[in-house]
Amino acid sequence: MVDRLPNPLERRLLRMPPEQGGLLPLQVLVHLEEVPNLREQVVRQVADVADLKNSDRAGGSPAEVTCAELVSADPPRELDRYCQRGAVERLRPVFSSKCEARLSEAAPSTPSVSTPGAPIRLAELSWTEAASRFRRDPRLLLPVGTCLQHGPHLPLGADALIITRLGEAIAARYDLLVAPTIPYGAGSATDMEYAGTASLSSKTLHRVLNELVSCWEAQGVEELVLLTGHGYGPHLYALATVVSESARIRSVDLHAIDLSAYLESAHTREHAGELATSLMLHLAPELVRTDRIQDVLLPPERVRKLVAGEEPVPLPGSIGVVGRPSIASAEKGRAIYEYLVDHIGRGLFGPPAPPDVTQPSARSHVTQTPARHVGGGRPHDD
Description:
five-stranded parallel β-sheet, single chain, 2 domains, mainly alpha
C-alpha cells in the first residue's frame, strides 16, 4: 500500500478539508480514463481498498460519494496514482469489459490480419487487433537484446538481431504474438569501453521488464516468454527475477542450451566467437566483416575467471572477442538456428499444432515465475 497525502480531487471525493489531510492509502493500478461508467466502476474498487478511517467525514457511503463526485467532475480529473499490483485481478474485469465495448464500437467484425507462416508483430497491429489477439491467445513473446560490442567483425546489435529472428520464427510456427525487441540489456564495465556500446544496469532492466509485464498483464496477457541471447550474469538475473501478479513468466537463455553437437568450442566460454558469428553468417551475412575476424585464445583457467554468468567478459584493452570466430560458418549457423527454433518451441509449447488446440507444456528445462532459463545450463552467480 502506498501512503501519501490526498490531492485536492481526492479531498473532494472524501469531503476532507485541506487542514485534515491525513495519509490516504489507495490501491489503484492504472490511471483512469475519462469515461464515466469506467471511472465509476474503478472508484467502487478503490472504495473497497481505501483506508476508510475518515469515512465519518464523508457524510455517507464512501463509494456513493466517490462515484457521484467523480462522474459530476467538470472537467473530469484523473486519479493517476499507482500502487501495489495486488489490485490487478480486482481491476482487470473492469478494463476487460470496457475494452470489449470499445472493440465492438470501433471494429465489430475486424479480425487481426496475418499471413500464414509469418510472425504476428504486436507493433504492426492496431489496438483493436491486439485486443482480439489477447482474447484469442493471451500469450506473448518478448525478445531482449543488447547494444553491445561483439568484436570488430560483428555489429553492436548482433544479440538483438539474432534473438529477434529466433523469436519471430517461433511466433510464426506457433501462431503467437511477438512484442518489439528490447534493444538494450545489462553489460559489463569492460564492454562499456568500446564505442557504441550502451547498456542498462541490471536494476533498470529488471524494472523496465516488470513495468512492461504489468501493462500487458492488465490487458489480459496470461503468459509471457522472455528470450535472450546475452549471457552476462546481471543481465540474466534481471530476466530471471521478473515477477507478475498472475501471468506466467518464462525465460529462455540461449547459453543454457546444449549446442555441443553443432560447435567445436564451448559457446559458454566464448564471446563473439563461433556461435554468434555462425548465426550472423546465416541470418545477416552482409553485416559480418569477414576480413576483420580474429581469434582470441586464452588458457582455460583464464577464461574461467572471465566468465560472468553464462559467457566470459572480454579482457580490458582487447579487441572484444573471446574464442574462435574463425571456425564459424553459415552452415553451422543454419543448423543451430533451425535446432533452436524447434528446441525452444517444443520446450515451451510442445509440438506445433493449430492455435486452438495448442496447450503450453512445462518441461524440466522450462520454468515458471520467477523466471529462469530454458536449456540444461545452470545460471551462475553474478
